[in-house]
Design a protein that fits this description.
Bound molecules: inosinic acid
CATH architecture of the largest domain: Alpha-Beta Complex
Number of helices: 14
CATH superfamily of the largest domain: Adenylosuccinate Synthetase, subunit A, domain 3
Shape: globular
CATH topology of the largest domain: Adenylosuccinate Synthetase, Chain A, domain 3
Radius of gyration: 22 Å
Distance between the termini: 9 Å
C-alpha cells in the first residue's frame, strides 16, 4: 500500500500530526519535494518536535525515512535537524534515514540569491522562506544544479561550486552585497557532505524493493496544493510540485502503484507570505482573525511569521480535491473554532458581477474575486480532545458535514487538538481502512 498525504490549502494544515499518526501503521515514510521551507510540528507527550526536512515518521524508532529525489537539501539544515532529534532521544542512523543520490543540494549562494530575488521584486515579492529553495530548483531546471551524488566526488563538487558561484556572484554584487568565496563555501560544505555519505541511497530502487516486500509506504507532501508551481496561485507559489503527480516523480514511484491520496484540510484557511487569498478575513473581522491566530497558534513553526487568517474556501478546496484525487480528508483544528458565534464558508466566487466556480489562473484576477459566503452557526462549546463523532456538538457535526458535501469528499478523520489521541476516526471510511491497514 502506498498513500500520498497532501495539504489542500496554502500549507500549515496540520500534516505533521496526521503523518505521525499514520506512520504507526506504515513501514516507510518518504518526502518527495521541497526542502527545509516546511515546518511540521509534532507533539509526543511533553516533547515538541519541529521537523523541516526530515519526514515526520522519523520520530518512530522502527520506521525507515526517505528524502526523495524531488527534494532540495541543505546539508547544514539536515544535520542540525538530525542532531536536534538525537538530543531528544530519537536515534537516527543511515539504516533508517536514506537520502536520494538524485536530490539537489542547497548551497549558501542559493540562500543569498533568494534574498536578492526578493529585494529585486520589492512590492511584488513572493514572501519566500529565504531558505534558498527557489534558486536551488532554478539550478536544477537549468541543468547546473549539484546533486547529492555529484557532491560525493570532491573534485566535481569544487568545479561545480566554482562555476556556479561565478554566475551567482554577478547577481549578488549587482544588488550591493559582498561576493561569496568558493574556498569558504567548500570549507563549510565538504565536511557536511562527507558526513552525508553513509545516508546516500538509490531511493527509488529502495522504495520499489520495499513495495515488492509488501511494506506500507507513506509519501509525505510538504507545502500544499495552492503553493504548487503549476497548479497554485502562481507566481506566489513554491518552486516544486506538492500535488499528487509530484509524488510519483519526486519519489520515483510509478503512478499506478499509488493506492490512495489523503488531503489535509483545516477548518479555516491561512496563508503565509504574499499572494492572493480570496477568503482572507476583512479588517472589520480583525478580532476573529486574532482569536483564530491565538487559539490556533497560527505563527510559522520555523519562521514565526504571523499567518494571515481566512474562512474556509470550499471552491479552492474542491479544486485541490479534483487535482489530487483525494480519497479521504483529514479535517484539522476543529477545536480552534469552538469560540466563534458564527462561521462563514465560501461556497462560490463572483468576478465582475458573474459567478465562477473555479480558481482563475491569473493572480491579479484572483485578487478581484469576491467570495460568496454561507454563514453557519457556531457551537460555542469545548470540543478539545473529543474522540467520537457522535460526541461532538450537533452544530459542529453539521459544520463538518457541510464542508464534506461542498468539497465532495469524505471526511475520514477530525483532529480536536494537537496530541495524537485528540483525534476522531470516522467508522467505515476509507481513512479507517488505512488506519486498520486494509
Ligand atoms: P519558498 O518555498 O521559500 O520559495 O516560498 C514560496 C512561498 O511558499 C512563500 O509564500 C512561502 O511562505 C510559502 N511556503 C513555503 N513553505 C511553506 C510551508 O511549509 N508552509 C506554508 N507556506 C510555505
Amino acid at each position: 500500500m502506498i498513500i500520498v498525504i497532501i495539504g489542500a490549502q496554502w500549507g500549515d494544515e496540520g500534516k505533521g500530526k496526521v503523518v505521525d499518526l499514520l506512520a504507526d501503521r506504515f513501514d516507510v515514510v518518504s518526502r518527495y519535494q521541497g526542502g527545509h521551507n516546511a515546518g511540521h510540528s509534532v507533539y509526543v507527550g511533553d516533547k515538541a518536535f519541529v521537523l523541516r526536512l526530515l519526514p515526520s515518521g522519523i520520530i518512530h524508532p522502527d520506521k525507515v525515512c526517505v528524502l526523495g529525489n524531488g527534494m532540495v537539501i541543505d546539508p547544514k539544515a539536515f544535520f542540525e535537524e538530525v542532531d536536534q532529534i538525537t538530543e531528544k532521544g530519537v536515534s537516527v542512523s543511515p539504516e533508517r534515514l536514506k537520502v536520494s543520490s538524485r536530490a539537489h543540494l542547497i548551497m549558501p549562494y542559493h540562500r543569498a540569491l533568494d534574498h536578492t530575488s526578493e529585494e529585486r521584486l520589492g512590492n511584488e515579492k513572493i514572501g519566500t522562506t529565504l531558505r534558498g529553495i527557489g534558486p536551488a530548483y532554478e539550478d536544477k531546471a537549468g541543468r547546473r544544479g549539484i546533486r547529492v551524488a555529484d557532491a560525493m566526488d570532491p573534485e566535481l563538487l569544487k568545479l561545480r561550486v566554482e562555476r556556479n558561484l561565478e554566475e551567482a556572484n554577478r547577481i549578488i554584487v549587482l544588488y550591493g552585497h559582498q561576493p561569496l568565496r568558493a574556498d569558504e563555501i567548500l570549507a563549510e560544505i565538504s565536511p557536511l557532505v562527507e558526513r552525508l555519505r553513509p545516508f546516500v541511497c538509490e531511493t527509488s530502487h529502495f522504495l520499489a524493493e520495499a513495495r515488492k516486500a509488501s511494506k506500507k509506504i507513506l509519501l509525505e507532501g510538504a507545502q500544499a496544493t495552492l503553493l504548487d508551481v503549476d497548479h497554485g496561485t502562481y507566481p506566489f507559489v513554491t518552486s516544486s510540485n506538492p500535488t499528487a503527480g509530484g509524488a510519483s516523480v519526486g519519489a520515483g514511484i510509478p503512478p499506478h502503484h499509488i493506492s490512495g491520496v489523503l488531503g489535509i484540510v483545516r477548518t479555516y484557511a491561512t496563508r503565509v507570505g504574499e499572494g492572493p487569498f480570496p477568503t482572507e478575513m476583512l479588517d472589520s473581522e480583525e478580532n476573529i482573525a486574532n482569536l483564530i491566530r491565538e487559539r490556533g497558534n497560527e505563527y510559522g513553526s520555523v519562521t514565526k511569521r504571523p499567518r494571515r487568517c481566512g474562512w474556509f474556501d470550499a471552491v479552492a478546496t474542491k479544486y485541490a480535491a479534483e487535482l489530487n484525487g483525494f480519497d479521504s480528508i483529514a479535517l484539522t483544528k476543529l477545536d480552534v473554532l469552538d469560540a466563534l458565534e458564527e462561521i462563514k464558508v465560501c461556497v462560490g466566487y463572483q468576478m465582475n458581477g458573474e459567478r465562477i466556480d473555479t480558481l482563475p489562473a491569473v493572480a491579479s484576477e484572483l485578487r478581484q474575486i469576491e467570495p460568496i459566503y454561507e454563514t453557519l452557526p457556531g457551537w460555542l462549546s469545548d470540543t478539545v480532545g473529543i474522540t467520537e463523532f457522535d460526541a461532538l456538538p450537533e452544530k459542529a457535526r453539521d459544520y463538518v458535514n457541510f464542508l464534506s458535501e461542498k468539497v465532495g469528499v469524505e471526511i475520514g478523520l477530525i483532529s480536536t487538538g494537537p496530541e495524537r489521541d485528540q483525534t476522531i476516526i470516522i467508522g467505515d471510511s476509507t481513512m479507517e481502512s488505512w488506519f486498520s491497514g486494509n
